Amino acid sequence: MLWSLFGLPLVVGVALLVAGHRADHHAAVVSIATSVVTLGMSIAVAIIRPAMSVPYLRGITFGLRVDGLSAVLVVTVAVVTLAVLVFAAGEFGAGEAQARYHGLMLVFASAMLLTVTATTLVTLLMAWEVMSAMSYALIGFHWRQRRRAASGTVAFLVTRAADLGLYVAAGAALAGGASGLTLDALAGLPDGWRDVVAGGVILAAAGKSAQLPFSFWLARAMDGPSSTSALLHSATMVAAGAYLLLRLEPLLAATPWASPLVAWLGAVTALALGAVAVVQTDLKQLLAASTCSQVGFMVLAAGTGGVAAGSAQLVAHALTKSLLFLTAGAWLMALGTKHLPDLTGVARRYPVVGTTFTVGAVTLAGLPPLSLWATKDQVLTATVPSAPALYLVGLAAAALSAAYAMRAVTLVWSPPTAEPRFDTEHPGTRHVRRAQSVVLPPLASGAALLGVLAVPDVWSAFARLVSHGREATPEWWEAAVSAAVALAAAAAAVAVVRLRGDVPEQDGLLRWLGLEAFARERIARPAVATGQVLARFDDQVVAGAVHGTAALGLRLARMTTLRWEPVVGGAVRGVAGGVRRLGHLARRPQTGQLHQYYAEIAVLLTALVVLLIVL
């Protein structure tokens, strides 16, 4: 069943990719049916909890296992994949490469399912590679548009650079003697090797989850289709790094410096990218920045040992953010814009989309009694024993979450103050297709109802499911404080939008703290310049030395030819002439007359006798 869980979407996805345009007409139906079956199998494996291991190389295995943590994740991935593929059926029209798109999505989903069930670094690396390749293809799906293709390249290069850490970790684990490269064996590595493994894992996870300083690649990823953002950048790829840190929390705990580093990395990212989200004028950019911020809470939980809290945050965020990305995509298709000032009043115009967007945004704001309020409190509670400063930073990040979410809600429900500009990105259809709207209420219901995790008994059951240890639950005053902070920040955001029309623009925050510009100026351009210098060195010095050596050899050959060829040639010609003359002389006695031959023999015998007498 584990083979089938990731094998079915993989095989069907590859078949759609190979079929190409011939399968466009049936691609959506085939991919949706595949995802329905995959969802059924994910529920089955979550109940049965199977495991498998097959030999890969000597001493190294290819292993998969469904435990409590991965059981929750495989069901979440399957649910979101199904919802996104149904939405995508209405997002793409006739003449578009639907088979290619649905094939890429299914292969990506297969890789994500493989990631969350992997038990060895070999399995994880295989899935990690496929995820990276598929994300590149999906972000740059409309590759004929130069910016979108370039955005796919930026996302690919940034994440791949960070992914090198996972290879370093695998090499260190192998050198350190990790049995079979299993993930469970990493925490028991000797000092030194364990530090290298932890550093590589943190680097790879930070890059994949768009944590600082890698966050800017997620801004460029928003140039992909909205359904791509809903799957890759809510429940799967961006969450994969956080999941890896949660899975390897024992490794972080065993490495003295790793847990504090991860906790502060998540907290600072949650705060900084929350501030970035507050001022964004593009709805998808706002959601992207908020994704970095919310994933920061998951990373914070991994650093403080809150495996259950981080897992709950991951699941709640997956449902909430996939809902919000899909509603943004519905408006983008209908109106041809995702510019927030031009989306004022659209919730009134499209009430189903507007209502579900509001549910998702209020959930994202962390307002009680919805899901992210409950999971955020669990994450903050896990920080208290580690460092109270982390709690304060996390609380400030939670306030920013309420601010940017309620700002968006207020704008989409406010009556327009000026004539909105539609069709700025592409011509809008002015309607939302049924396939797009039908998946929004179930996602909104799931995002809201997961607030049941705030009930102590429910939370205890969930914590026992995904974590071996017992995790603290929030005190009443902690829940009250976080609720008060979120409500106050939400009220402040609503008041600012109502009184001033919107928040003032901040250029640095609007450009994502200048992270992409910094990477371009301080990393990309110096790397290109260094490459050009090395290329010139290769052309002028290395290649010049090769050409010079060849030229010198030719000159020496010519000099040798000029000096020695007459002598050698003359000797050869002299020998040949002497042989030729001897041949002429040898032919003279050959007359064919017998008496002359006898005379010649007699002369020779006489000469031999004389020689014998003399000698």
Automatic annotation (TrEMBL):
InterPro entries: ND/Mrp_TM, NU5C-like. Its main location: membrane. It comes from the Bacteria. Residues 118-392 form the NADH:quinone oxidoreductase/Mrp antiporter transmembrane domain. GO terms for cellular component: endomembrane system; membrane. Signal peptide: none annotated. One of its GO terms (biological process) is ATP synthesis coupled electron transport. It is a multi-pass membrane protein. Gene3D superfamilies: 1.20.5.2700. GO terms for molecular function: NADH dehydrogenase (ubiquinone) activity; NADH dehydrogenase activity. Keywords: Membrane, Transmembrane, Transmembrane helix, Ubiquinone. It is found in: Endomembrane system; Membrane. The chain crosses the membrane at residues 30-48, 69-89, 101-128, 149-176, 196-218, 230-246, 258-279, 286-308, 314-335, 347-367, 387-406, 438-456, 476-497, 597-614. This is NADH:ubiquinone oxidoreductase subunit 5 (Chain L)/multisubunit Na+/H+ antiporter, MnhA subunit.
